Amino acid sequence: MKGSLEPITVTEKFSPLKIFGHRIQQIIMPIFAIAEGDIIPLGTGFIISQDGFMITAKHVIDEVFEKRFKRRDGSGRLYKNVEPYALYVTNAKNKDYPGNFIGGNWPIDRAWYKNELDIAYCWLRPAIVDGQPFKFHSSLSLSPGIPKIGEHVLGFGYYKEQSFFTGEIIKGRKVVSYSQETAFTQGFVKESFIPQRDNFHMNFPCFQTDARFEGGMSGGPIFNGSTGGVCGVICDSFGETDEHGEYTSYGSLIWPSLAINIETKMENDPSIDKLTVYEMIQRKFIRADDTFKNIEIVKNKNLISIIHKNSQGS
Q1: pLDDT tens-digit readout, 244-266
Q2: Cis bond upstream, residue 107 (ω within 30)
Q3: What is the DSSP letter of 204?
Q4: Which of 22, 72, 269, 45 is nearest to 140 (CA)?
Q5: Where are the beta strands (DSSP E) in 212-255?
Q6: Does the pTM exceed 0.85?
Q7: What SS3 class is residue 271?
Q8: Are residues 144 and 116 in contact, defined by beta-carbon separation less than 8 angstroms?
């Protein structure tokens, strides 16, 4: 796989990425839906295993998987057929399609989430390349600790997404015009909310930051400036809140989502097993830093509890 290896230096509070096909775009991707002839941008997601597990915000994909995705023309009518995808981008030339680059849409086959959290784990349908299942060249490591007040954080996501079918067909395939802007956004943790910020809008463990999150960035990763791992998922922003241009934005904390059960299939084993994300980290299927040591899981007959040693919530 090819992609720009040029290092990125983020100096501004909000820094658009001007490099097309940078390798970060092979790990952090825009998510969209194809529904009855329409292409609808949904948000952002990021790869956490080379096998194709992805994290996004629950509100980005839950309506699709719960068959309640409505038309966006104000009619309120439900789409009958909706297919979610992640868009994979490289700057490698495509020899079969001169003038184009290698990449395309990856079907999102499954999603697992809890109603009380705004984090979802997704499974991208594996493609067969040269007779072998495709493996992503890299993935992001999780940092499930609770970021400290004043901690520097860095987010990444897609915004100003526009897409449509052009009507052109090349070698039997429909041509899609898809454009978006991507940016790094940085700030500091202002406050943590455990078990929740409120009883309605953000009724889940989260933290506040002054980083600028734009529409479409929901589901993107928030990196802990100290550990380098993903400590949160972009979930909301109230925009500028004062005359100094201060932003009020929110990220879902990663650690409560480690109790989510995911159906997995072990290599050379035809059976399907259910593992929590916590167990997948223990088995090295998903990477996490040393803050994982602060997390404990308790499994009873009908209940899975996740506990952070440094918090009062669970």
Answers
A1: 778 999 999 999 999 999 987 66
A2: no
A3: S
A4: 45
A5: 221-224, 230-240, 247-253
A6: yes
A7: coil
A8: no
